[in-house]
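User: Hey, my collaborator sent me this sequence without any context and asked if I could get a structure. I don't really work with proteins. Can you help?
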Amino acid sequence: MHLNLRKKMSNENALVIVNYDASYLEEQSRALGYNVYVIDHHNYHNLKKTLTPKSLKNFISTISKKHKNVSLLYGSGLEGKKNIYKDFTKLNIKGNNLNLLNKCGNIYKLENLLKESGFQIPKILKNRKDLSKHKYLIKPINSCGGYDISFSNQKKENDYIQKYIPGITYSACFFLKKNSFIFLGFNKLFLLKKFPPHPFVHAGAASIRLIPFSKKIIESLKYFSIKSNMYGFNSIDFKIYDNDIYVLDVNPRITSTFKMYNDFYNNKLLKSQLSSDIDSSISHKHKVKKNYGFVHIFTDRDFIYNKKPVINKNFINLPKEGELIKKDNPIFSIYMIADNYNNLKNKLKRKISMTKKYYSCYDINI
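Assistant: No problem. I've predicted the 3D structure and written it out in structure-token form, which is a compact way to encode the shape of the chain:
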């Protein structure tokens, strides 16, 4: 192929990535040959600035002048921003329709279908009698990453009061295209210990092979996701209590657990997300045979970051040398792989313990 023609063809395909931290998606998308444009908070620090109607129109217009085909891949960051969704309709969205993202921001809009699928959802508490009888949470509509969820009694305008469901929080990841459902795996989700600002903030996850009611959950997921016309990678967060499966959140987007499954499939999960077909290697026959896991390390004080001897290839999303890291913010993540869940858990615990010798940070409940 003539060099100029090859260059022209490669320049035709551009990908806009929106995510709180887009570093992994950016790297893997470039490996697939895309011209990548990033809107994120962690590296480019342009999430808040770009996701306004005027700025976003200019951002998309500039890219569209350079490339014939412009697509959108999104993770966190678009929740509750319905006023800009119409601007993204000019792009080829490689994921769920943004109207579904908006709907899933309030699981009570999905109550009938979730229950029809075999799930339950926590009860909303509205009167003083209910509040006196049950432990409860204050939770915002369009919550993301566990932020702003608490046991507080200070309710804001877009908050609702939800009955608290005790127990381990799990997630389930799955992939769909053309009503072809592929279950990817279950994960156990981690929380920080004693983190008053956001006690339910997402602090990591680890893949886990089997949990109670696995078969029932997978069957319910398949029914729910097909009925919802979901597309590509999705996940739900849930708890098991009194033999019922309580859905806490429906995530119709790329989440932090995507990396674990995409790494197992050697970037073919992302390739399938961005193309019209599912790669043949992604199927129920090719189950994840190792346990993947990660934790986010949050600092408990302001400090200037500098690399310490503990840092190695298992540390990802590193800040820049000399960067100011503010109290209660993540510093970096630790990513590990093991042959089974117990080995993975122990490896993560050892890494966290070593990290705390060099950095002042919150402990994680694994």
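In plain terms: The chain has a mean pLDDT of 93. You can pass these tokens on to your collaborator as they are.
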